[in-house]
Amino acid sequence: xxxxxxxxxxxxxVLAFQLAFPKLNYILGEYGxxxxxxxxxxxxxxxxFTLGGIWASWYYFGQRVLKITYHDYPFLKAVxxxxxxxxxxxxxxGVVSLLGGITQxxxxxxxxxxxxxxxxxVWVLWGISMFGSMGVRRENTIYVSLWYYIATYxxxxxxxxxxxxxxPTYLVAHTGSLWHSISMYxxxxxxxVQWWWGHNAVAFVFTSGVIGTIYYFLPKESGQPIFSYKLTxxxxxxxxxxxxxxxxxxxxxxxxxxxxxxxxxxxSVILIIPSWGTAINMLLTLRGQWHQLKESPxxxxxxxxxxxxxxxTLEGSIQAIRSVNALAHFTxxxxxxxxxxxxxxxxxxxxxxxxxxxxxxFKREIYSGKLMDVxxxxxxLGIVLYFxxxxxxxxxxxxxxxxxxxxxxxxxxxxxxxxxLIPYYVxxxxxxxLYLIGFFIFLYNVVMTIQKGRVLEKEPAYxxxxxxx
Amino acid sequence: xxxxxxxxxxxxxxxxxxxxxxxxxxxxxxxxxKKGITxxxxxxxxxxxxxxxxxxxxxxxxxxxxx
Lengths: 469, 67
Known about the structure:
Chain B: It comes from Helicobacter gastrofelis. The complex is a heterodimer of chains A (469) and B (67). Chain A is an all-alpha fold and 469 residues long. Chain A is globular. The two termini of chain A are 26 Å apart. With 67 residues, chain B is mostly helical. Chain B is elongated.
């Protein structure tokens, strides 16, 4: 998970600088161009880093909240190992094939059809692991984090299969490459299915999966029960009901039926209710305990993650309003929105999860609390530079694209907007670099924890112990 | 009645219906909590009391006895 975080984020920084300095596209021949690297960045971060973090969390706390141990269930343990290795194999094949230019050209679903089948195998194995563990659980109630994991499982299973239904041309027509396939959908239908998937990959991996993760690690690390368990259940069901319809907001002002655009716009705006229900619930979990924010860099990561979740979901709802979308769509504001979510909310939650798990798994204190602090501030500054530059760039772009003179002619050509945006692209690249440096510090701290952290005699119940180096 | 009117009524009907569902869910949770039928908040302890040797918050076999 950390390795794919490094790969995904490193490529992300390269991409950011390629947009600022286009000549960087040609440093590695065809293997270094934006079109090849971009899917490696998105797939690496979504399926490598994020899903890796969610699965690591599942195997860590799933047994704990169900009160079972895989030492008693060798079959489930074997399924877990198989799940891990096939996932690693799929990711490596994914990186190699995407760099080789093999793609089915669907955003966040670029992998070629044979790899799609491997993804399904990985998913089925996770299902066996999860539902098998629940089948033998000692605790009757399934903790809310696992509700969110079940939602991730079911949501992605349905969406992934439907979006990837395609005909392998070589097998059917004996022509073209073995890797090539043609989508079963065409035109507007293809766009609808693609964005039903595209946005819901965000919904069921970046949102429900990560909510499940933070709902365990925030209470556990702080020693405080969730502020309101009833609110978790309410926001869970309302999120499930609302989120699945929101993907159409990627197609506002396109050729899909008007009612679909309105429906997805309305549902995207309503989405603020469950999203903020969850975020407020997380923040209120620390009521009366705000001193922990000062004392623990790990709590800092978790609290700022919740705050970025609030920011990002508010922003998303605003962007889905038709009139705002007219300005925002296709601009860098959207990129800013995605990244304040993934860097702040997803990244910080999973980094905190790893910092919580590693000392308990390897029975060692975190090597350096001070390095964690340095990492936190570097990354936070990086995110702020990233999203603020993209907000300004996006709104500038949108305003320039719609600017007309007294006769109704467009004032600017596309290239005029590109020239204006270059300074913001440089700031974005710099912000991304700070985040990447923070991630390398994270990697160093984790490795040093495993190798040189002070040995823990007893597993800490709550706050993770850390060295003062 | 033309299709647009029908669609409008259907839209209004389902909006009200789903809103009622949501409110019913909230009310039912609070009523169950108040009457002592289900203490939802104790499930929060699942994250905190997660040692293998901890007593389960709600042991699984109880659900069979209830039936």
